[in-house]
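Possible regression after last week's pipeline update?

I re-ran a chain I had predicted before the update to compare outputs. Posting the input and the new output here so someone can diff against the archived version. Not blocking, just want to make sure nothing changed silently.
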Amino acid sequence: MRTDSLLRLRNRHFFGLDLCVLLLAAYLSCALRLDRLDLTPDWSAFLWVAGLALLVYPPVYRASGLYSRYWRYASVGDLLLVIRATLAAGLLHSGLLLVVLPLILSASPAPRSIPLILLPIMLMGGAAPRLLVRAWLWRQQRRAHSKPQTPVLVYGAGEAGVQIVQELTRNTRLGLEVVGFVDDDPHKQHLYISEVPVLGGRAQLLELVRTYGVGQVIIAMPSAPGKVIRELVDTCRSASVQVRTMPALFELLSGHGKLAQLREVRIEDLLRREPAHIDDQAVRAMVRGKRVLVTGAGGSIGSELCRQILRYAPSQLVLLGHGENSIFAIHNELLATIKLGSTPIDSAGASHSNGTGADIAQTLLIPVIADIRFPERIRSVFAETRPQIVFHAAAHKHVPLMEWNPVEAFTNNVLGTRNLLQAAQTAAVERFVMISSDKAVNPTSVMGASKRAAEMHVLQAAERTGLPYVAVRFGNVLGSRGSVVLTFQQQIAAGGPLTVTHAEMTRYFMTIPEAVQLLLHAAELGKGGEIFMLDMGEPVKIMDLAQDLIRLSGLEVGRDIDIAVTGMRPGEKLYEELFLADEEYRPTRHTQLFIAAHASSQPLPDLESIVHLGTIAVERNDQEAVLRTFTHLVPEYRPQAVAGKDQTPVRQNTHARHTAAMLSNPDLNHLNMATDKH
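New output (post-update):
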């Protein structure tokens, strides 16, 4: 039969086919009941059985929706529908034939076993034609779109791997043929899963690649740590085999990926860690039905915060930011999410909004363009929106730029945070969470000192109110604006070289979804006055990061692209510190969250007096006085880098030399005199 003829089949054709099958089933059931080799039925019984079946089966099929299906795309659900409809019709037919008619006719017109013979014949006769149409068309489409198939190995024989195999089997246009699974679980090896063999473990990967002529390896483990990803990528690279992966668990949780979605391996895959167990219910209970405000909502962290907060269905989400374009973008994105009623899924395919699209459909989005440096504007926003929870992500974060612009760092990071806290206390905000930085530990940069000063304001507000006002520190996030990864990618696109400031420089990295997930849990854990530190994993050499990015781009270091060491920039350290020398980090019930006990409980300086003097310096644009203010606010702040003996002083400008001189006389009265000298 030609494919175009099958495509013209309609449900009226299936109706006629069902009538023929009914007559044949009635004939066979009566003939088989008599156990005659010539299949001659009891014609009287046949007429009763067939006539009653014609009166019962078609109406039941129609009522069940069997004649409103497009059988070209028949599925397991459609098969179950055929079974349910046939069983319902069979029960009704049996009841009429064996119960109702004997009462009317005073005798049964047919043997009682005939309906039991008729039913399985109808089950096969009803389902087979429809499924055969689906199977025939699928086979023809495979032939029409077939092309040379590339042998593929799937690493991970779990649920994600099975979904990948099913997708590749359905979509032959991709030209990928799965020859087997690779899984380290010995209980799965040498078994078949979804008709695909589990050929061995990671140790046998290279051998399997060569044996089966594999052209691509797919990593189907959203929770695989970076160490495993790196090992697989290195193995495949040595065999000139392409590697693809699926989104990491935190991408799935934040809605940035789909379980069966494949992509090239990215640098964050090489750095990913094993995901911690996350108490989503606790975060949902904190956010659901509350009025939430996010500052810096258009930034990398702020926008991801908004995405993840929305899936917990707050009653109101205020998107506050200074840049109108970024606020416009995230507002439109969230509006589309609400309109579609979409919610992110986890690795098991489960929704995380405790709900449906109807839940987030009730969330009111309020975009606000405002500068946190203007206290009156912030107070009016808080008075109008009455937030119950505030996430403060707005900040200047670029270390070298803040070295050259300390006034901006002070006004935005310090005064802006103070303005928000004052407005929050006036508006009776129940919970305040400030996003801080690991650069606030023993800061050598203006940015780090400004973040530590902002932390102090949060601690003071928590002490004054007794409310859960907390700060959360973490390191660099991959993919954020100004991220070294984005810089490297731009340099690769331009043909290089990649610029690294020091061959031994290391940093801690997290993905944005992962950092925000942990940030939300820190917010839920906070009781008031804590400084939380996220477990940043192992530090990564920037030089190694540059080399990995070059290789992931299919290039070779030195042959295609060079790496140039340019020297450290103002405010930079060789490595970031997570602890002060005498600082105690207490664990929480979350394995990747700690409390910086010393930083959370140390005596607070005379914040108001010092910040007031800094404000005067800002009004006069006196950068030297602003820097002196930082030295009094943050005693451990050292303007010259001292983290490693290889490091040289990075400040050579005029205000830095003045600051270094003032460090030898950090007297508050001296600072006061300095600000009044004009």
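Follow-up from reviewer: compared with the archived run. The CA atoms of residues 17 and 329 lie 55 Å apart. Marking as no regression found.
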